[in-house]
């Protein structure tokens, strides 16, 4: 909502709009995390993923990098082999899945002799949590997710109203959830499209810098 109000504000320059909001990379990063977590919840509720996949606090914030790092570590602590075939990688992924299941179960158990895995202090949760409570809890549905999103939108609307940022949205007919979502999608889609049908000054400078190197290679 804040980004949309800045985009349609006519009294601000583009530099001022960029300074009043987080960077594009930070925004895209947060959006990717949100959509990733939502997808995991939907897959778990549909039965495509096990329940312990929801214990994201036990895993790295960079799952892809952590997965490949774990796959490489399965070769051995002192092994110099870092490359492996797709078949070998799928076999390693199966082992990692079993390890994550053990890790999730043991970390959520208060038994005296349970295995404790090292967890970064920022990812450690203080509240009590048990695996049985997670497995016995009713699965979240798409309807529940929609209710959470609508509730979050209403809370954000209250905050934006206190900052007097909703007036701009109302003037442009964007005070509706669906209309605002369509506007954001259209704006991001247009900003993501790059037209390579013309050559700009930067391309000319780069090509001119490469020409001497090509001449030297030929000689």
| Overall SS class | mainly alpha
State the low-pLDDT regions, or none.
126-134, 203-215
What Rg do the Cα atoms give? 25 Å
How far apart are the first and last residues' alpha carbons, in Å?
A: 59 Å
Number of helices: 10
Give the rounded overall mean pLDDT.
70
Major sheet size, sense and barrel closure:
none
- Mass-distribution shape: elongated
Helix content: 55-70%
Order of secondary-structure elements:
HHHHHHHHHH
Task: Tell me the fraction of residues in β-strands, as a range.
Answer: under 5%
Describe the structure.
- The chain has 219 residues and is mainly α.
- The longest helix has 22 residues.
- About 10% of the residues have low confidence.
- The protein starts with a helix and ends with a helix.
């Amino acid at each position: 909502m804040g980004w949309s109000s800045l985009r349609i504000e006519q009294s601000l320059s583009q530099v001022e709009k960029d300074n009043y909001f987080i960077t594009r990379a930070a925004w895209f990063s947060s959006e990717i995390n949100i959509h990733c977590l939502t997808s995991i919840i939907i897959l778990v509720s549909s039965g495509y993923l096990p329940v312990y996949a929801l214990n994201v606090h036990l895993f790295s914030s960079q799952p892809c990098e952590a997965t490949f790092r774990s796959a490489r570590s399965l070769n051995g602590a002192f092994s110099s082999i870092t490359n492996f075939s797709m078949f070998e990688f799928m076999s390693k992924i199966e082992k990692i899945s079993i390890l994550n299941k053990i890790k999730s179960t043991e970390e959520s158990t208060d038994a005296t002799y349970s295995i404790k895995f090292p967890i970064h202090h920022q990812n450690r949760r203080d509240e009590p949590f048990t695996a049985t409570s997670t497995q016995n809890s009713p699965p979240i549905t798409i309807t529940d997710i929609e209710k959470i999103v609508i509730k979050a939108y209403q809370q954000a609307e209250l905050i934006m109203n206190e900052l007097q940022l909703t007036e701009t949205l109302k003037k442009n007919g964007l005070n509706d959830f669906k209309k605002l979502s369509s506007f954001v999608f259209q704006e991001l889609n247009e900003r993501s499209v790059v037209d390579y049908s013309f050559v700009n000054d930067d391309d000319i400078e780069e090509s001119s810098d490469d020409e001497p190197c090509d001449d030297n290679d030929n000689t």
